[in-house]
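notes to self, project folder thing:

trying the whole complex as one job this time. last attempt i did each chain seperately and stitching them together was a nightmare. two parts in total, labels are on each line so i dont mix them up again. if this works i'll redo the older ones the same way
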Amino acid sequence: MYGIPEFRLPKKIVAKEVDTLKKLGVKIETNVVIGKTLTIDELFEMGYEAVFIGSGAGLPNFMGIPGESLKGVYSANEFLTRSNLMKSYLQSPETPIMKGGKVAVVGGGNVAMDAARTALRLGAEKVYIVYRRSMEELPARREEVEHAEEEGIEFRLLCNPTEILGYNNPDDVRDPKNGFVTGMTCVRMELGEPDERGRRRPVVIPDSEFTIDVDTVIMSIGTSPNPLIKSTTEGLEVNRHGGIIVNEDGLTSRNAVYAGGDAVTGAATVISAMGAGKTAAKAIDEALSK
Amino acid sequence: MYKIVEKKVLNPTVIQLWIEAPLVANKAKPGQFIILRVDEDGERIPLTVAGVNKEKGTVKIIFQVVGGTTKKLSYKEAGEYIQDFVGPLGVATHLDGLRKVCIVGGGVGCAIAMPIAEALHAMGAHVTSIIGFRNKDLLILEDEFKACSDVLRVMTDDGSYGEHGNVTVPLKEMLEAGEKFDMIITIGPLIMMKFVVATAKPFGTPVTASMNPIMIDGTGMCGGCRLTLNVDGKKVTKFACVDGPDFNGYEIDFDEAMSRGRMYSDFERHAYENSCNLFKKEVQ
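result (full assembly):
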């Protein structure tokens, strides 16, 4: 409901799944942010005997290049949330979004494909995927790439942004166009020696700078886990990327606290998250039946 | 659904609501915020907690009618419900160890500054409050500030009430007279906070500013509320929802924050007008 676009996972299907859970007797409490409204320890105090953390991916990464705070630069999370959860695709939405124009999506993952195809559906006249390696290394699923290509999304491969350019009227600081994106400067890349993971490292080709004419830039270069639960749950261990550490049953370093999905693995697919949920559910059931 | 238990119109554009939300009331501390949605297709908007009543399980919010959503919220009466109300979010204002503090609030920002002044007063700290408004009609919470401040200065831009001038006038005067504050806490329009920082700078008084950027998610997921800090000459991106909303005033890039704040101003103006038109139709 939050970020996955309608064309990929219709809300109807999600609603049906949720209904099935409700029919099984699952009670769903909304508007409770664990780590803020309540803590994991308070849940145990309230009488719960096991907790499963499925809090998803967290803070979006940015590149750290000049211009990322200009108006018209989104993280993929924000763009997809505005469009899906907040329904800015409606004719007269209450939540605004930049529509139309030329859009560059930076990154090559499944989320980047989602963002690019959503931008197209919101009425963009041109959508680019900007990725610093070649098609071979592009991490999105092949099927996603094919769909994106079919829909007319242009892949600018072996390209890396170095700066996002904004409108600036030096004669009028109050010009309403000031601070909006007008383009993105990139450099061309070539693949060099493989890194420690065996992926060929992209290297900048000298003097290859060029500018793409765009008015929206969507950064889709991954997320770091949200520290909210970790920082309020004593004894919950995380790895160096911030992902919660679990054993093969999904059990964390805390007794009776389980976790799965993006909160453990970093951004991945719904399918693997569902798998993790089932594994942990089985383990929780066994542990509580003892 | 969350029930509105009390409604009070503070001035022609500022409204105070007490909302039944026991879990939020139980945890909220000064400086934290909530996110609400008026109805199912509504926009998520952040509002800073203006007070809590733990016994009754209620939370006070004070908001100014500026766009479509706040307009719609302003039509809600006591006894009616809003769809969602989640929190408390963000980091509470750090008050530990403060003995002498100057609170500088502007406009509806005073609503957020007030619980901080109250908490400091309850801690036994010396509280100086400078509150500023465009004019007499927009004045809010004067009595509440009087009750928790050792010194209170009320300013209006046009001189129609209190003293004539903006909030930096008495601040500068006090600092020049040798007043030593442990901290200046400022909450209000970005341009005002920018000038509070500039006023305090020659005296080296620490300034905490409470930021109010555009926010969607409020729990660190979307990055929409990001702002740039200049920390030791390096630019650092921070998220107001999880790292803030309070930041060191000397580090904030206010100009950028002001520009980002205007991202949807055209849209908001239309949303506000549409919302008014809908209301007119309903009345007819």
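what i see at first glance: The interface with chain A takes residues 23-24, 27, 41-44, 68-69, 84-89, 216-217, 219-224, 226-228, 237, 239, 242, 253, 256, 259-260, 262-268, 271, 274 of chain B (CB under 8 Å).
need to look closer tmrw
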